[in-house]
Write the structure tokens for this entry.
Amino acid sequence: MRTELLREFATLANYGNFHAAAEKLFISQPTLSNHIKQLESELGFELFDRSRNNEITAAGSILLAGAQAALMSIDEAVDACHRLLEMETESYPPVRLSVRVSREKILSTMDAQCTCPYVYTKYEMNKPLLYGFIQDDTDIICMLHVDSFPALKSEVEKLGLKHSYLGKNPCLIAMKADNPLAKEPLTRERLRGSKIAVLSSIVFGYWKSFLLDTLGSDLDLTILPFPVETLDNLKAFDLKDMILFSPAFMVNEFFASRSGYIARETVDGETLYMPESIVWRPREDNPNIEHVVELLRDCMKDQ
């Protein structure tokens, strides 16, 4: 039984509402619903009574008490391990990590499994992708797939950086609820002639190439740059008649929970995935950089 499913179950039981719990967990509501169904199938009994406004069942209440106690014990043990290992590795500076893709998965892995000091560098949407390496304030970045973009790969190699395939990042599609495309499931044919927003001029070329390759260059798509300075600006960004294809964490955090917006997970019944890379600068004075790279590659290998 996966501990993340138990955590999601405990969060849902605490909030009593799928939407609020999904928002707290930074996942989509359909994803949370599917995970709860998986857990119920594994257990062989229902945890929530769907006919009574998702009220927790008697069996669910018993499991909740045990799950909360178990999760607390696990968290306390992990914290103790972190404190012990931090003492052993404190002679090395913190690994400086920038996360632009698969944030939920990577951040939760670092929190639960990383045994060395680390810090997150600021996510600046208006700075070049490799800006942190140029300024020497970043050791590792999780980003777009380097091998998919020759110019980006050339820049990575000129800077003496290493890179490796990391995994694939699910994309969600955000739009206003009154957009005609919101009325039915999305298909490539229904997307014909659509306006698609890209929220960063820095990665506009990468996203345009990805969208045309993935959706098809014959759909007469209009792909437009609408750069925002910071992620917080997305809380007020108005898509108007445009749609947004973006990493799941961005749509979940800044659009799916906003009134008047909806999020779609598939096109033609399929999830769109953007391949990702991990890029890092090896440093002899900090072997923990390689440790974090291996940890993240391992946690993402099934994606």
